[in-house]
Amino acid sequence: MNNNKIGLSGLLFTGIGSIVGSGWLMSSYLIAAISGPSAILSWIIGSFIILIIAFNFIEVCGFLPPKSGGFGHYVEYTHNSTLSFIVEWVFLLSWIGLIPAEATATVQYLGSIIPGLKSIVISASGNGLTTTGSAITSLVCLTFFVINYASILVLMKLIKYLTLLKILVPIFVAVVLFIFAHNFSNLGFGNHAFMPYGYHGMLESITTGGVVFAFIGFQTPVTFAGSALNPKRNIPLAILFSVIFCTIIYSLLQLAYILAVPHDLVSQYGWKSIVYTAPFINLSEIYHLNYLIWTLSIVAFIAPFSAGLVFYASAVKITDGFNEYLPKVVTKKYKNIPLGSLGFVLLGSLAFIWLLPGWQEIVSVICVSLVMLFAMMCLVNGALSKHAGYEKRIHGIKIKGGKYFAVLGYVLSSLMYFWSSWPLTWKGLLVLAIGSPIYFIFHSKKVSFKETLSDFMSASWLIFHVLLLTLISYLSPFGGINYLSSGCSQLAVVIISTIFYYIGLRNSKLSSRLTKHVAQLETA
Which class does domain 8-411 fall in? Predict the structure, then answer.
C-alpha cells in the first residue's frame, strides 16, 4: 500500500463516499415499508442520533493520537484489553460485512436493470439472491480485492471522481421526482395515516430499515488516520461535514420516494405490501422517465461499487490493527502490500455472501453489531473527560456540551440496539459470544490465562448490559412477546443503559498510555 498523505478533501470524499453507497438506492423503500410516511421522521431522528455519536467520535479522535485501523486502540487509553478487543472485533466483522452488502446491492440493482438477468440473480421472493447471484456477488468482491491490491493512491483518486458523481445523481433524482410526482396524499393528509404502523414502526426502521446503515460510513476517515495530513484537524471536520451533507441528501430522497409512489398502490395494498426490487428505477418506469432510468442504471452500479472499494480498504486497515488476534498468515506481506489482510477480508466477505444471501439480511446484522461500537466510543469520550478533562479542553477539539453528549450517545446507541427488535438483538449477543473464545485463545498467549480471565471478568458488565437489552427486546412489542408495553420497555432501556454507562465510567482508569499522552501534550 502507498503511504501518500490524504488531505481534508480526500478524507471528506471517503466519508461521503462511504455514506452515499447502496443506502440511498434501497433505504427509502425499506424504511417506508416499515414506517410509512413517518419515514421522514426516521431520517431526522436517526441522523440526530448519528450526529450526537459523531460528536463523541470527533472529541475522542481530536484528542488522542491517530492510528490506522479500527477503534480498539482508543479504548485502551481508558479501559482494559477485553473492551478494546470487543470494540475491534465488532468493528472488524461489521466492516467486512459492509463489503458484501455493497456488492449485493450492485448485483440486485443490475438484476433489475438488465433484461433477463433478474430471474437468474434475484430469488423468487425478490428479497435475496439465487446461487448464481451469490456467485456473481463473490466476483464483485474479488474485483474489490484486485483494485485494493493495486495501490491506495489509485484508490483515492478513483473514489474522488466516483463520489462527485454519486453526490450529484441522488440530488438530480430527487429533483426530477419532485417535478413529475406530487402524490401529497401519500403523506397521510387524507384517509391514510402518517404513522400507519405506530411510532415503534418508525423507530424500528432506524436500525432495520437502513438509516443506521446509511450513515455507518461516517467514521471511515478515522481508519485512514495513519495516512492523513493534519489528522487532528481534518478527520473531525471530514466526519462532521459528511454527516450533515448526507442527511440533507437522504431526507430529500425519502420525501421524493413517498411522493412518487402511486397513491392507488398505497390505498389498495399499504406501504408494507409494495414490492420494488430497484425502487427508483421502478418509479422512473412508472412515470416514463427514460433519461432518469439510464442515469440510475449507471449510478446504481457506481454508488455501491465505489462504497465497497472504500469499505474494503478500511477493512484491510482494521485487519492490520487486529492481527495480534489472528493467525500469522494474515500478517504476511508481498512487496510491502498486506496480501494476508487483503485475502482475509476477501474470505470474510465471501462468508457473509453465502451465509446471508440478501442485502437486508446482511445490513440488519451489521447495524445491530455496530451500535455496540457507537456506545463504547461514547463511553471512552466520557472517560477521557473524567481522567483528562483539562488537557482535553486545552489540547483537543472541544464541542460545547460535550460532557452531555457522552452519556446521551451511550443511551441512544442502546436504544437503537433495542429498536432493531427481537430476534435480531440476540444475533448481536451472538457476535460477542463468538468473539470471547478468540480473545481467550490469542490474548492468553501474551499474558497468563489468569490475567486474561481477570480482564474479561472486569469487562463482563458490557456483556451483561447487552444481555439485559436482548431480554427486554424479547419481552417488548418490538418483535417480542409483548409482555411489556412499548413505553415501559423503552423506559427500562433508558434507565438500565444510564446505570451501565456510569458502571462503565467507574470501570475506566487513568492508564499509563493516557498519562504518557497527557505528559507529551504538556511538554509540546
Answer: mainly alpha
